[in-house]
Specification:
mainly alpha, Heat Shock Protein 90, three-stranded antiparallel sheet, five-stranded mixed sheet, 19 helices, 2 domains
């Protein structure tokens, strides 16, 4: 635990020391490079500028002079000195600077070719001057690479001096161009354009450099710019640009330029030397601070290591004992308790929650005590939760099984009473009682489902979707408000028929409860690529978007049943059934207001049956309602549509809101008692046949 901070501290100390030493070395290296390449390259630039001016004059007069030959000799010597110095400091320069040196050497190698063109008269003075400019441009790019010091203040001053040096080169180009024009007294159009560009560049470079230079370096330039030679030079520039002609006083021009360039070179050398001296002083100061800070830091690191090792050994032993006790708790004791609870075994809290015994500092013993408290609380909570859930589950299951048995007996008694009754009014009341009992049985099955058991009803053969929907509607109290729309013919796996009936019934009942009593609940279905969809839509107030998201999350991944949230018992049952069979149930806002529930039954559970599309005989019993113990919904009234009950509008409306009764139609003769008895006897025989088929098929399943 202590090793990592110590290593980090040591690494950080070394990293900072390396960076600081690197800055100092960079400053010293910059001074070394300046003393070697900087000095020789400066002399090389001056010699190239002088040769350029004399070469322009030679290109104008078409004569080679002794002065030009002497200048070329001085240039060759400067080239040799520079190349020798570059070789000596090759190990200290960067890759970028090494590339710049190579580029400059390549241009210097073309000097003989440039001179030959001028000597033979094949090059005009502007072309020859341009060739020399290219050599000097590569030299000034090398100067840019030399301005690389880590001290920001020194770097800014060096960069500013580089701009001043570039401006000095522009003045030299102006001087060379005008020196050739003084001989024949004219400037070509191209030369005037070039001179104009030189003037603009010179002004820009001086302005940029002066804006950055500090007071000590800027003051000599300010004095020179305010002196007579420079002011006269700027006037000469303006006249040349405006007239396109060389100055009339050649001797005066040459004298003023000699004085001006001499002062500029002197100021430049002084300023460059001052910057180099600053770099050396900064490097020395940095190295001194490095020595002091590095030494003190090293002592601190060594002392930290010694102290940490001493205390770390003791702490490591104490932590090892605590770790062993914690691992025993997390990997052995608590898993053993959970396993016993899962297997239904009794757990002794005192025995399983023994205190953790460790020795050491107060902090270690406090942590051990905290672990012991957590252990005891966790074991007690797990035991209590397991006992609570087990007890609640058993209560649910026992009550549901008892209630289911009683309801089954009640359905049997009702069936017998219906067979013995011939009075239509009594028979209708028995049918209503049968319907109520069926709904009670669904609630009992819901408790069984919540307890984790299965209700136990299943069919081996596929069951039509139509029968499933009709059976679900028959289990809802306010079934007269439910309308069915398009339901393509299809059948479902018999193993899920009872559970799907329960699931749809819960959704339909939820729709009727949470929508106004004068509205209609629509049930529709359709075959889709992924299976079969049953949609239940009401016209209630709907829910907020965040509530829809919460409910859909619970339907997709049902949590443990919470006794405090019994208001949504039906949704828990729906989630359990959907998860059992891989059915997707989603709630969403209806475009007409209210809520729409979408039930997607997987394709593997759906069987297409074209034969079911044919209409059933008028006296055919309803298959699934008969199998589930429910009677035909004759009490709904209003006839049937596609074999489904159709409600009559305003049937359940309050008498005060009912419209005036319509005139009674002409009365028809009532059926005789024998006709009524024969009618219900035929109805009972059909129901009995359906129940017998159910019993036979249930035995097969």
């Amino acid at each position: 635990m202590l090793l990592l901070p110590l290593l980090s501290l040591s690494a950080l100390w070394g990293f900072v020391l390396n960076l600081t030493v690197g800055d100092g070395r960079a400053l010293l290296r910059a001074n070394t490079i300046y003393q070697a390449i900087g000095v020789t390259s400066t002399d090389l630039g001056l010699q190239l500028q002088g040769e350029r001016t004399r070469s322009v004059i030679a290109a104008t007069t078409r004569k080679l002079t002794e002065d030009l030959g002497e200048q070329r000799a001085r240039t060759d010597k400067a080239v040799g000195d520079f190349q020798k110095a570059a070789v000596e400091v090759d190990g200290d320069i960067s890759d970028e600077m090494r590339a710049s040196v190579g580029t400059l050497n390549g241009h210097l190698g073309r000097l003989s070719s440039i001179r030959g063109d001028i000597d033979s008269g094949n090059s005009s003075r502007l072309n020859g001057m341009t060739e020399y400019n290219r050599v000097l441009d590569s030299l000034f790019r090398l100067y840019d690479q030399m301005v690389s010091v880590p001290d920001m203040a020194i770097f800014q001053q060096a960069a500013a001096m580089q701009s001043m040096g570039n401006a000095r080169e522009i003045i030299a180009r102006e001087q060379a161009l005008v020196s050739g024009a003084l001989i024949d007294g004219r400037l070509t159009e191209a030369e005037v354009t070039a001179f104009t560009e030189y003037v603009a560049s010179r002004k820009f470079l001086y302005a940029r450099g002066m804006a950055v230079l500090d007071v000590g370096l800027r003051e000599p330039y300010e004095k020179m710019f305010a002196a007579e030679p420079f002011l006269t030079f700027t006037l000469d520039e303006a006249r040349i640009v405006k007239s396109g002609k060389a100055p009339a006083d050649a001797a005066g021009w040459n004298s003023r330029m000699a004085t001006l360039t001499e002062r500029l070179d002197k100021i430049g050398l002084t300023a460059t030397g001052g910057i180099a001296e600053r770099a050396t002083e900064a490097a020395t100061s940095i190295l001194v601070r490095i020595g002091m800070a590095g030494g003190v830091g090293l002592i601190a690191v060594v002392a930290s290591i010694l102290i940490s090792v001493r205390f770390g050994r003791r702490l490591a032993g104490e932590l090892a004992d605590l770790r062993a006790a914690a691992l025993d708790l997390s990997e052995v004791r608590l898993p053993r308790v959970v396993r016993k609870l899962r297997d239904g075994e009794a757990v002794d809290v005192k025995k399983e929650a023994k205190p953790i015994k460790v020795s050491g500092s107060a902090e270690i013993t406090d942590v051990a005590g905290a672990f012991g408290s957590v252990q005891r609380t966790a074991v007690e909570a797990a035991v209590g939760q397991a006992e609570l859930r087990q007890g609640v589950g058993q209560v649910f299951l026992n009550l549901a099984r008892r209630k289911q048995g009683l309801l089954h007996r009640q359905l049997t008694l009702l069936d017998a009473m219906q067979r013995r009754t011939h009075d239509p009014d009594r028979l209708e009341e028995l049918f209503r009682l049968d319907h109520l009992t069926t709904r009670m049985r669904r609630h009992a099955e819901g408790l069984i489902i919540l307890s984790g058991a299965a209700p136990g009803r299943a069919w081996r053969k596929p069951v039509p979707v139509l029968d499933v929907v009709r059976a679900a509607i028959a289990e809802v109290e306010d079934y007269s408000r439910i309308d069915t729309e398009h339901l393509p013919v299809a059948a479902l796996d018999g193993g899920i028929a009872a559970d799907l009936t329960h699931l749809v019934a819960e959704l339909v009942e939820n729709a009727t409860i949470y929508s106004p009593p004068d509205t209609t609940v629509i049930v529709r279905g359709d075959m889709v690529s992924n299976g079969y969809v049953i949609e239940v839509e009401d016209r209630g107030l709907g829910l907020a978007p965040d509530v829809y998201a919460l409910v859909n999350a619970r339907l997709a991944d049902p949590p443990e049943f919470d006794l405090a949230d019994s208001d949504r018992l039906g949704l828990f049952v729906v989630a359990k059934l959907a998860r059992r069979h891989g059915i997707q149930v989603t709630l969403r806002a209806s475009p007409f207001g209210g809520t729409g529930a979408i039930v997607l039954i997987p394709r593997k559970l759906v069987t297409e049956q074209d034969a079911l599309a044919a209409p059933a005989p008028a006296d055919a019993p309803e298959e699934l309602p008969s199998r589930t113990g429910k009677k035909p919904l004759a009490v709904v009234g209003g006839g049937h549509h596609n074999g489904l009950p159709r409600r009559v509008r305003q049937t359940n409306l309050s008498p005060k809101l009912s419209p005036p009764p319509a005139p009674e139609p002409e009365s028809k003769p009532e059926r005789s008692p024998d006709e009524v008895r024969d009618l219900f006897s035929a109805f009972q025989r059909g129901t009995q046949r359906a129940r017998q088929e159910e019993d036979n098929e249930g035995d097969d399943s």
